Amino acid sequence: EVSSDFYRPTDVVNLWGDPTKAKQKLGWDPTRMTSFKDLVRIMVEADMAKVAAERAGEQVKLNLAEYLEKGIVK
Angle at the Cα of 9 (from 8 to 11), degrees rounded to 5? Predict the structure, then answer.
């Protein structure tokens, strides 16, 4: 139960939106439900891809430092 003291005169009971723009620009479909398991999989895959990209960048930096050290690149 919520006390009426916490309600503001401008509080809206129901909010409605039109997902048309999100569907057109992002291909998002509000009727397609993603299971929690799929959501976790998607998030983990995104994190793993980010880490792989960061590591690749670090490897390039390491290679460059090595090349500079050896005089291969000036």
Answer: 65
Contact 28, 18 (CB under 8 A): no
Integer angstrom CA distances of residue 6 from 1, 12, 15, 19: 11, 13, 18, 30
Within a domain: 68: yes
pTM, 2 dp: 0.46
Q: Is residue 23 part of a domain?
A: no
Residue 56: both structure tokens together: 């690749």
Q: Is residue 57 part of a domain?
A: yes
User: Does the residue 58 lie in any domain?
Assistant: yes
pLDDT digits (tens, 9 = 90+) for 5-19: 887 778 777 888 898
